[in-house]
Design goal:
By secondary structure, the protein is mostly helical. It has a single domain, classed as Rossmann fold. α2 packs antiparallel against α3, α4 packs antiparallel against α5 and α4 crosses α6. The longest helix is centred in the N-terminal third of the chain and has 25 residues.
């Protein structure tokens, strides 16, 4: 799965890795990969929603994750397929924990319960130089481009700091890649690192 701040190229790199892994690979995302998730995504991202209590936001993300795992991720894994996801539980820890100020430990426990204890074998963290991964840029993915924009630069700085801390704390699972390089350079680094970590011919 891929994690990182806004505009770091997660969606593009997730697609390229899924293509490299070959037929049968399931490419997915959070929030919004299921019909229920799409409705939750609208609530979470639409400016019309207005302010949400951080706990409400965390619970809505967890609800999306529970349906995502039940409907997409778990069946794919049970069928023997690789799954590549653009965001997963660590985004909740970073955004609602580090960003919104909730307990990161409590958000982790909520995500663990929502996902039925399912965590990725490898997390690709696309990191950007300081100052290049804060508030969403105009060309960034629409994953968090609406209601979250009002959170401001300090919020996004806390989110990125959270990702970096999680990466440092769990080097056996996380793979840090410099996301500021050209797309093909990043893709090659991702393939090499994931292939080595999971012992796959990439």
């Amino acid at each position: 799965m891929f994690e990182g701040g806004e505009g770091c190229g997660k969606s593009t790199q997730a697609r390229l890795l899924a293509e490299a892994l070959g037929p049968g690979t399931v490419l997915t995302r959070e929030p919004g990969a299921t019909e229920v998730g799409a409705r939750l995504r609208t609530i979470l991202l639409s400016p019309e929603t207005g302010d949400l209590d951080p706990r409400t936001e965390a619970l809505l993300m967890a609800a999306d994750r529970a349906q995502h795992v039940a409907e997409v991720v778990a069946p794919a894994l049970a069928a023997g397929h690789h799954v590549v996801s653009d965001r997963y539980a660590y985004s909740s820890i970073a955004y609602q924990g580090y960003g919104r100020g909730l307990s990161a430990g409590e958000v982790r426990m909520l995500s663990d319960w929502a996902g039925g204890g399912l965590w990725p074998d490898a997390v690709v963290f696309l990191d950007l130089p300081d100052g290049d991964g804060g508030q969403p840029r105009s060309h960034a993915s629409a994953v968090l481009d609406d209601r979250f924009e009002t959170a401001g630069a300090a919020f996004f700085a806390r989110v990125v700091a959270g990702f970096r801390e999680m990466c440092e704390d769990d080097p056996s699972r996380w793979i840090r890649i410099d996301g500021s390089a050209p797309v093909e350079t990043v893709a090659a680094a991702v393939r090499a690192a994931v292939g080595q970590r999971l012992q796959l011919p990439l």
